[in-house]
Design a protein that fits this description.
The protein is mostly beta strands. About 5% of the residues lie in helices and about 45% in strands. The protein is built from two helices and 28 strands. The strands form four sheets. It has a 20-stranded mixed beta sheet that branches. It has a three-stranded antiparallel beta sheet with strand order 20-24-23, with no helix packed on it. It is elongated and about 80 Å long. The two termini are about 50 Å apart. The model has no long low-confidence stretch (mean pLDDT about 90).
Length: about 375
């Protein structure tokens, strides 16, 4: 049975989810192979008084290679008074509570009880057995099983009786709960929420090598025929954190692609589109109209509809695009933009948690061939 790591951290922490994906690339395509499910690490910092620091040090010395119950302080909920016979606790269940898992009722380093979870319902958790202790005021949060990576790091604040300490836990039990909240298009997620507080950062650049002997002209050799855009999607979440984490498990790091809606108005409609129309006229954006064939576009007039461009020609300063009928009239005021097929550009995603307030992360994305 693991021991509880009992100390309360400062109200910020870092969490990392990491996968391992092998990517096999050709100049025009890529193949992705998921090699393992996610691993999770959590880093906490503490301000420990002398006796607490001594206790932490001796816990490390006594149980150097043992597993620990690791409280998830960034998912903590305040609890009302708890009596020994209580088996139902009201908590915010938008967190990692699940049947067969565990939680901790924490009042202090010396007063905490780990309980097994029998079932979870919205807003409450039912325990497998009574709490067995009285708490006038407590904090309730999920606990995970993990080991300490790198030991206890310490920096003593001179003559003040306080040590600035930090610990990183590598979580041992599986955190994978894959689930997607997004609608599907061609069996891929249609991600329509590309950020919460920051702009969607983006860049487009060819990948090439430079041939330069230092004495003559410089030559450029392309390495990829497909010119990919790169994006950074920023989340700052006070709620729905657990929903977004489950989605990250669903895409498995760099493994699974999805459609990104960046809300750019790539196309300006010249005329309204009738319900049965198989062509639409838009302002010209591409030097070669045929390059648009095979791309997918989103029509959003309050209802979102995606169509593939199956034909494209030029007509003066306009493109004439061939699409399947939309089934309703689309006015020229509708937002019309290209979808981008992307994947994560990193197998490691880090969250910066501000306990009780929000959690933030930046997710790098790269466009992949359709």
């Amino acid at each position: 049975m693991p021991n509880l790591w009992p100390f309360r951290p400062v109200p910020t922490s870092t969490e990392a989810l990491s996968w391992e994906t092998q990517i096999i690339k050709t100049p025009t395509t890529e193949r992705r192979i998921a090699l393992r499910p996610a691993r999770q690490s959590i880093s906490y910092s503490y301000l420990l008084r002398d006796q607490e620091n001594a206790e932490a040090e001796w816990l490390i010395r006594t149980y150097p290679l043992e597993d620990w119950w690791v409280p998830l302080w960034f998912e903590a909920s305040p609890a009302q008074a708890i009596d020994p016979a209580q088996t139902v606790i009201e908590v915010d269940t938008d967190a990692h509570y699940f049947a067969g898992g565990s939680l901790v009722v924490w009042a202090s380093c010396d007063a905490a009880t780990v309980c097994e979870i029998d079932s979870v319902a919205p807003g409450e958790v039912t325990l497998s057995a009574p709490v067995g202790a009285t708490y006038a005021k407590a904090i309730v949060m999920p606990v995970r099983t993990g080991w300490i990576d790198g030991g206890l790091q310490q920096s003593r604040i001179r003559e003040r009786g306080i040590t600035d300490a930090s610990v990183t836990f590598q979580i041992r039990d599986d955190d994978a709960t894959p689930e997607t909240p997004w609608d599907q298009y061609l069996d891929l997620d249609l991600v329509t929420k590309c950020g919460t507080v920051e702009p969607l950062a983006a860049s487009v650049a060819p990948v090439f090598s430079t041939i330069d002997n230092g004495a003559g002209p410089v030559s450029l050799e392309p390495l990829d025929e497909f010119i990919a855009s790169r994006h950074t999607m920023s989340w700052r979440l006070k709620s729905n954190l657990w929903t977004r984490r489950k989605w990250l498990h669903y895409v498995r790091g760099r493994d699974r692609a999805f459609w990104l809606v960046d809300w750019q108005r790539d196309f300006t409609l010249v005329n309204p589109i009738s319900a049965a129309a198989i062509t639409t006229t838009v302002k010209k954006i591409a030097p070669v109209a045929a390059d648009l064939i095979g791309r997918h576009i989103l029509f959003d007039d309050g209802t979102r509809t995606v169509r593939e461009i199956t034909g494209a020609t030029d007509s003066g300063t306009n493109h004439i695009l061939t699409i399947a009928p939309i089934g309703r009239i689309i006015q020229t005021t509708a937002r019309v933009g290209l979808l981008r097929k992307v994947r994560l550009d990193s197998d490691v995603i880090e969250f910066a948690h501000s306990h009780g307030f929000f959690s933030a992360t930046r997710i790098p994305l790269v466009e992949v061939p359709e």
